[in-house]
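Single-chain item
Fold in C-alpha cell form
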Amino acid sequence: MLVDYEVNGSRLASARTRILLTAAAALLGVAQLWASAHGVIGPVHSLLDDFLANPQSAFVSWAGLGLAVMGVSAPLRPRVLAAAAVLDLLVLGLQAACGWHVSIGTGPTLVLTALAAWASRWDPAPRRAALHAIGFGALLIMASKVADTWLTVSIAAGPRVLDQYVQLADHALGQPAWLIGRLLDQAGSLPSDVLHAIYIQLPVMAVVVAAWQLRNVTTSSWPRHTLLRTFLALGVIGPLGYVLFPVVGPVFAYGPLGGGLQVGDWPHVLPTAAHPPAPMLFDSATARNCMPSMHTAWATALFIHSRTGPRWLRWAGALWLAGTLLATLGFGYHYGCDLVAGAVLCLTVESALRDPDRGWDRARTQLVAFGAAVLAGLLLAYRFLPSTMARYPVPAGFLVLGALATVCFMFYATWFAAAGGRLAQWGGRYRVGAAGTAGN
C-alpha cells in the first residue's frame, strides 16, 4: 500500500509539473508577443540568447540546474555540474576572443536541456524524479524571464508613480529608508558590499534551501510542499501590485538614480511632506516594482522554509532575511510600507499552500482570509489615507505593525506552535506533527 501511495503521488506530482510547464510555456509565448510589440527583448528571445552564447539569466540558469540535479543520483550530480562549468568557461573564452558581451549562463542552460533529453529515456522511477526536478529548474528560469518582461509592463501601464503617497505613509513607520540609508552611507563600503551580495544572491540561497528539501527525492517520495511552490506562486501574484500600485522607490523618486526627475536628496534630506500627495511623472526606463516588496516576500518564504532544517540552514535563512530587509531599505529600493506588504503577502500565500494534507480547516481559512484582508487594507490606506497616517504617525504605525504582528502570530499558531498546547489548538493543530514539516 505504501509503495502504491508513493507511486501514485509521484505520478500526480509529475502531472502537476507537466501542467505547470505547459502553462509557463503559454505564458512565455504571450509575454514574448507583448515584448515584441513594445520593442523589448522578451522571454523567448532571452532564452534563445542563453543558448547562443549571449546569456541573459546568469546565475538564475545555474540556480535552475542546481535544482534539476537534485532529481538525479548523487554520483551523477557533480559530473553534471562539472560539465556545465566547463561549457561556461569555454563560452566565456569565446565571448572574450570575439569581443562579445561576457556573461555566464550558457553552460548550465545547455546541460539542463541535454539532461532533460537524456532523463526522458531512463527507467520509470528515476525518470519521474529527474524530470520533476528538471521541470522545477526550468520553471525557475522561465519565471525569471517572464518577470523581467513584467517589469516593462509595469512601466507601460502608466507614466506616473505613487511614491509621494508611500513616502507620506512611511511617516507612520519612522521613515526607515532614510534612516537605514543614512546609516549605511556612513558605515563605509564593507557593510554595503555584504548587503549587496545578500540582496543579489537571494535566488542562490533559495536554491540551497530547496536543495536541502529535495535531498532525498531519488530514494523517497517527493515532498508535498517546498519553497519552490511558494516562490513561484509569489512570483505570479505579487507583481500584479506593480501595475495596480506603481512605485519606483526612494533612490529613484528622491535620490541620485532619478535622472533629474527626483524631488529630493535621499538619504541625506527627508523631503517635506506633500499634502495632499500627487502622482509623479517619471521616466520610461525605471521599473515600478516596489509595492509590494517581492524581495521581502521571497526572503520571508526562505526564512520560513529554513526553520525545519539543520542549525546552519536556520542561521543562513535568518541572515538572508535580515540582510535583505536592510538592503532593500539601505539602498533605497523600497519604503518601509513596501516591506510590510511583502511580508503579509508571503505569509498569506504560504498559508494557502502549506501542508496540503491538512485541508482547508477553520484555522487555515481564517488565516488566509485575514491575511488577504490586511494586505488589501494596507494598500488602500497607503493610497487613500497617507496624509492621515503622516499626521497621526503613532496610532497609524501601531495599526500597520499591529496588523503585521497579528498575521505573524496567527501564522505561528497555525503552523509552528508546539502541538498539544493551547496556542496550537487555537491554530487548529491537535496532533503531534500535524503541520510545520512541509518540505522535509
